[in-house]
Design goal:
Distance between the termini: 60 Å
Structural class: mainly alpha
Strand order of the largest sheet: 1-2
Low-confidence stretches: none
Oligomer: single chain
Radius of gyration: 29 Å
Shape: flat
Number of helices: 23
Strand content: under 5%
Helix content: over 70%
């Protein structure tokens, strides 16, 4: 039962959703079978039962029938999918008002139609967002107006002009957003060819009719920053626009804007602009305070690790010490303990508390291979600082075996094998051999795939 789609769907419900779903199933309009509601109640419990046990709870006097039980599960699954659609419709708000207005217009209830249309006008003017969704709603509103007015005045063109304007703005805004997302992905993975249509869309967005609209202007600025990251002026223009126009966009869009900016600054710091390290931390702090880094109340473990890394690079150790335990409960349950121990170890390493680092890392069980390798690298650095060379060599051998055993591939494989290789090279250096030291430093600086390059340079100085 645990692997069934039905069980997994039910377990994804919050407590509040389970209560609402049960009321939905108890409504005779949607369901008139008690056995379906009973199956839902049993599957809502955290204890997983076998099909035969569930059957005996629902039909205590009947022999188990696998076909009937599968049909029962199928009926329940379909009803729960309908429940999700009803819940989603209830959350649409403005969109549902337009849908209801259309129903009234088709029934000839024009008083009801106008009441819903005026309610829509009032609510959409009061909410601050002016993004693609706003213009899509306005497009649908003026389409509805046109459907009504064309019957009364077949020569009317004004509603069509306004309808066309909002259609254009909705398309351009959404299209620019997709271009930004594609450019951002290419900047990370260096993959794919340039799409010639992008240039056409951007040129269209630069026309006088749309150039000063806040959503289009902001996405155009984002495109320029992503296309020309080496020109710092474009980052500054984009940052000013999306922070000033914050109310125009949804939380999801703001999270994307902060991600674009953070990744831009990280790439520039990797190229030597160390002054942007504090900028990265400030961006994380602002996005965190505004709630943009959370999805459904959850903070990604990757974002959590990156924030700690940014704080440590800036020397904000006290801030990191508060952040680590404060935001750990917002991670997914599976990753809380490992993320807490790893990041506390990073902080303790920065504070030269090496005994604590050893204790935290040697006890922890990191199932994620990349987190495991990051922890092994931190342990490597700790052994090196403590001059535990025998332990360090054993650790390097075990780390190399782990990489081969787990079949770590691509960039990560090369990076960690380089870390092992350069550590062994340092251990093998002859004392006072300045030529060998200079050659090794030059080789480290030249290596393109080496996340611990700065640490190695410091280690041999």
């Amino acid at each position: 039962m645990q692997s069934s789609n039905l069980y997994q769907l039910i377990q994804s419900f919050t407590v509040a959703e389970q209560k609402s779903a049960l009321r939905f199933l108890q409504s005779p309009y949607f369901n008139q079978r008690e056995d379906i509601g009973r199956l839902f109640e049993l599957l809502s419990q955290h204890t997983i039962s076998e099909k035969q046990q569930l059957w005996s709870e629902i039909y205590p006097d009947e022999p188990f029938d696998d076909t009937r039980f599968r049909l029962l599960m199928s009926y329940l699954n379909r009803l729960l999918e309908r429940f999700l659609l009803v819940e989603q419709l209830g959350e649409k708000g403005l969109s549902s008002k337009l849908q209801l207005a259309a129903v009234y217009r088709n029934r000839g209830l024009m008083g009801h139609f106008e009441r819903n249309m005026r309610a829509f006008e009032r609510e959409i003017s009061e909410q601050p967002q002016r993004n693609a969704q706003y213009h899509s709603l306005q497009r649908d509103y003026f389409l509805e107006r046109h459907e009504n007015t064309i019957k009364l005045n077949p020569t009317d063109l004004e509603s069509l002009k306004i309808l066309a304007h909002h259609s254009d703005v909705a398309y351009l805004t959404q299209r620019l957003r997709l271009i930004c997302l594609e450019l951002a992905q290419k900047n990370v993975y260096r993959s794919g060819e340039d799409n010639p249509l992008h240039r056409v869309v951007i040129e269209l967005a630069e026309q006088r009719e749309w150039v000063n609209l806040p959503a289009i202007a902001t996405y155009r600025a984002a495109c320029k920053m992503l296309q020309m990251p080496e020109e710092s002026i474009y980052y500054q223009i984009f940052k000013e626009k999306f922070t000033v126009e914050e109310q125009v966009f949804s939380a999801t869009e703001m999270r994307e804007f902060y991600t674009f900016s953070i990744n831009h600054c990280i790439r520039q710091t990797n190229r030597g602009e160390r002054s942007l390290e504090h900028e990265v931390l400030e961006l994380y702090q602002k996005a965190l305070a505004a709630g943009y880094l959370f999805e459904n109340g959850t903070l990604s473990r990757f974002t959590y690790h990156n924030i700690v890394a940014a704080a440590l690079r800036c020397g904000e150790l006290d801030w990191a010490e508060q952040f680590i335990p404060t935001y750990n409960p917002f991670l997914e349950d599976t990753y809380r303990d490992s993320s807490l121990s790893f990041n506390q170890a990073r902080l303790d390493y920065a504070r030269n508390r090496y005994d604590s680092v050893l204790l935290l890392l040697q006890k922890a069980n990191y199932r994620d291979p990349l987190l495991n390798l990051a922890a092994k690298t931190l342990l490597l650095k700790t052994y090196f600082v403590l001059e535990e060379h025998d332990l360090l060599q054993s650790h390097l051998d075990a780390m190399r075996n782990y990489i081969h055993r787990k079949k770590v591939i691509g960039y990560h494989r090369n990076n960690y094998l380089n870390i092992i290789r350069f550590t062994e090279r340092i251990l093998q250096l002859e004392p006072n051999n300045k030529k060998a030291l200079q050659e090794l430093r030059a080789e480290i600086e030249k290596e393109a795939v080496l996340t611990e390059k700065e640490w190695f340079i410091n280690a041999i100085n």
